[in-house]
Design brief:
Layout: H1 2-14, E1 29-34, E2 40-48, E3 51-72, E4 75-80, E5 83-90, E6 95-110, E7 116-134, E8 141-159, E9 165-168
Antiparallel strand pairs: 1-3, 2-3, 3-4, 3-5, 4-6, 5-6, 6-7, 7-8, 8-9
Length: 169
């Protein structure tokens, strides 16, 4: 389990946000990944005057690789693929596992010509989620759901050199 945690934390920090083509000229390629720094592990306990106990644990991981193409100077169109995993185990050893996968086309526009460029970003897409319930006693069950995702936002890109940009948004 420690090995899995180490790999998940490593992926989280390495895929924060980056671009292989830091410049925003027409014909450039944008490759990156976001994690929203959303890897967490939580083990909950309770304590009161009447005793104490374990409420269970939760693991969450979210990563969104993306690739885009600059169709105009400063304007990239592409596809982002949000993937998430969540596992929750309560004190009774009941387990809930949720995985989701989506495809979201995006449009991003960088303003200016300096090494620090503000940007606007928008995307919309569809996906699916699967939920697996595995109780400690009894029969397991599976559920699925369709998802509609959208995002409108902005931020600033810090162009470190000709090939690397760190986007904060």
């Amino acid at each position: 389990m420690k090995g899995i945690k180490f790999v998940l934390v490593g992926v989280t920090f390495l895929s924060f946000a980056f671009s292989l083509k830091g410049q925003t000229e027409e014909g450039g390629i944008l490759i990156g990944a976001n994690t929203n720094l959303n890897f967490s592990y939580m083990n909950s306990n309770w304590k009161s005057d009447n005793g104490d106990g374990d409420m269970g644990s939760t693991i969450n991981l979210e990563v969104s690789p993306k690739v885009g193409y600059f169709v105009l100077d400063g304007m990239a169109v592409g596809l982002e693929v949000p993937i998430s995993y969540s596992m929750q185990e309560n004190a009774n050893e009941d387990k809930y596992t949720t995985t989701s996968f989506a495809g979201t086309p995006f449009l991003r526009y960088y303003f200016g010509s300096t090494n620090v460029k503000p940007y606007l970003h928008g995307q919309v897409g569809y996906g699916m989620a699967k939920i697996h319930y595995d109780p400690a006693y009894g029969f397991s069950d599976d559920f699925s759901a369709n998802m509609f995702l959208y995002e409108v936002g902005g931020g600033v890109g810090f162009f470190i050199n000709e090939t690397i940009c760190i986007d904060l948004g």
